[in-house]
Write a structure and sequence with these properties.
It is a single chain. About 80% of the residues lie in helices and about 0% in strands. It has 4 helices and no strands. It has about 130 residues and is mainly alpha-helical. The protein has one domain: Four Helix Bundle (Hemerythrin (Met), subunit A) (Up-down Bundle), CATH 1.20.120. The two termini are about 15 Å apart.
């Protein structure tokens, strides 16, 4: 059973972690064509946001099971994006990996899957905020 006060409190406490996670994802994706040193730094930033969000979530169980699942989905998607982009940084150290057919074929579908996963989680989390 969901308690409105508990959910509001949980949501307010979760917001900084979600903001950091989403911001780090957006930064990484928007700069994914940059040289490897930049991509690796952005992966580190996203990895840190993942660790903080996961640690917080483990210690603060969500009163709404479905919302908790989507919180975990966003964490999982972020972790996957970071792993894929770390591979991109190794395969295309100069950046511009999208034009590199070999690298794009190797990671493109997986990256798009992680972006779609994150988008679904974000959409649900955003809709929940406006209930």
């Amino acid at each position: 059973m969901r308690r409105p006060g508990a959910m509001q409190r949980w949501s307010a406490e979760a917001r900084p972690f979600l903001t950091a996670l989403i911001g780090a994802e957006d930064e990484l994706i928007s700069r994914s064509e940059r040289p490897a040193v930049v991509v690796r730094a952005l992966c580190d930033q996203l990895d840190t946001a993942v660790v903080h969000a996961r640690t917080w979530h483990v210690n603060h169980r969500c009163p709404d099971a479905k919302l908790g699942v989507y919180f975990n989905e966003l964490i999982s998607a972020s972790q996957g994006m970071s792993a894929i982009m770390q591979l991109v940084a190794m395969e295309a150290p100069g950046g511009g990996w999208i034009e590199n057919r070999e690298v794009a074929d190797k990671v493109g579908a997986n990256l798009m899957d992680r972006i779609a996963q994150a988008t679904r989680a974000r959409r649900y989390l955003r809709e929940w905020q406006y209930r």
